[in-house]
Amino acid sequence: YDNFVSYVSRQRNISESTIRNQIGALPYDNKTAEQYKLIDETNNREAAYQALADEAGIGDDFGIVREETTASFIKSLLGAITGQPKKEAKGVDTCALTRGILAYHGDTAALCKDE
Q: How far is CA 16 from CA 1, 21, 29, 38, 44, in A?
């Protein structure tokens, strides 16, 4: 608890005594969390994507791709063992391996070009 209070105090610029005596270490709804200055604002997913892109310096030059999966609930929860890409071996074309989720900014075709 002491580490938590110290961390929140430093990160949110709230005195440790305020955290200990008024706020505590409890879950709050967005309105209350904003009043306590535990969060800056509440926004939607698209605004979060844009804020991350702005922070990364890519502005509006990005897209969001959602990959559909047909894995069962248990496989989704635990991860499908057979769907895991194998470790790269020397001389293996990594672009022919099992697809995975990749976050990348730039020309994705360049990832598969021979060097």
A: 11, 8, 21, 13, 31
Angle at CA of residue 43, ends 40 and 48, nearest 5°: 95
* Residues 83, 71 contacting (CB under 8 angstroms): yes
Q: List Cα–Cα distances, 20 to 34, 60, 63, 106, in angstroms.
A: 17, 41, 42, 46
Write down the residue that tokens 């022919």 correspond to: 96
Question: Which residue's entry shows tokens 């005195």?
Answer: 15
Average of per-residue pLDDT values in the chain: 77
What is the pTM (predicted TM-score) of this model? 0.48
- Contact between 15 and 9 under an 8 Å Cβ cutoff? The reply is yes
| pLDDT tens-digit readout, 38-60 | 999 999 988 988 988 898 888 88
